[in-house]
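ok so heres the complex, four chains, lmk if somethin looks off
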Amino acid sequence: MSSSRDNISALALNRLSVYLRCLRLLEREGVSCISSRDLARRFRLSAAQIRKDLAHFGELGIRGVGYRVADLRQRLESLLGLDHEHRVVLVGAGNLGSALARYPGFQGATFRIVAVFDIDPERVGTRHLGLEVQHVRELARLVPELRAEIGILAVPAAAAQDTYDTLVDVGIRAILNFAPISLSTVPEVPAKTVDLLIFMEELAYFLR
Amino acid sequence: MSSSRDNISALALNRLSVYLRCLRLLEREGVSCISSRDLARRFRLSAAQIRKDLAHFGELGIRGVGYRVADLRQRLESLLGLDHEHRVVLVGAGNLGSALARYPGFQGATFRIVAVFDIDPERVGTRHLGLEVQHVRELARLVPELRAEIGILAVPAAAAQDTYDTLVDVGIRAILNFAPISLSTVPEVPAKTVDLLIFMEELAYFLR
DNA sequence: GATTGTGAATAGATTCACAGCT
DNA sequence: AGCTGTGAATCTATTCACAATC
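and the predicted structre for the whole thing:
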């Protein structure tokens, strides 16, 4: 038993996201209660790990019975901060940026892209899903106005650090970075770097 | 000291990719030799970890001196299987798929998208970077013909498992999956699932 | 003298196994 | 009886610290 303020590893946190997906699926299927054993079997997870991960946030299950699917789903959403909308700004309206704008995950209720920015005058003013691309100089005005919390960096590697710094200055509180560069960050504004080529290179290793 | 056949963790493997990038950058800057300490300082890495990771593949450095940048870069490329072209097929020509086709990392010499497939007749025949979208039923003919080794899944979650199974049947040897689902895989064809929403959810946790 | 490569020490994550509830 | 929650045991990863080498 421990409070939700505890340090939790990124690994465990990501598993909670996975559990949440499983629960949503079960809920749609009409399953109202499930044991860690059945959950593990169904989704190829580890029963002991499910229990440990969940127990970290208190007693979320019922001994002798299992976990109430709807309750646990709701509880996880709340613990993960997914029970309300997060407003996202996307910086970089190139190929990757414009694909991310259309990514189905950003059409849901949880993450909503509220503005798209680019530095290239050719792109400023074009539209992506009803959003007109703004010049990055508008960040300082629009981020507070739109109450955006999360930034997505889809800019070239050379521009990523400067853009991170700008986003910190204008009040963004967390950043997802697609540029293949390790950012120098301040602790109050964590950045998660996702480098697609590294995933490809991991696969290539298994082909030798 | 150990052979390149050893088990290496995905974590360590991903770090080798990072080191490789650092080395390429240093090489462009004209640095010919660097110590683990300087490499760590420059790119915010751990010197001991760099040494341990590299030592796993033999004695790649020179005691008292450091690592020869060009040599090590070349050695890592070879160890990771990045010293020759890998032919990639992309399945799913929707938003994410078409963005991936244009991703700068796939314009380089290492990974080359040689065909794009979709099941939707409306998309078949359209063009993405000089490649005409093929119907998925052509996979069985084209994968061997094009000698493709790697598949990228950019299909809806509901179609991902079937598509994985098809790719295995037609001879693909490793798969990068963007569908938010954990695939049931055979050991000969590893799949790496990349779920962008999980990254967003990780960030959301830090905003509570 | 400097730096690698590496065994030993530490830290972190996962699994086991069972006490404690329902 | 059945299943969770959890301390102990195991496994994995990282860091330390120094002998070996250049």
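quick notes: The helical segments of chain B are 10-29, 36-43, 47-55, 69-80, 95-102, 139-146, 157-170, 196-205. thats all i got rn
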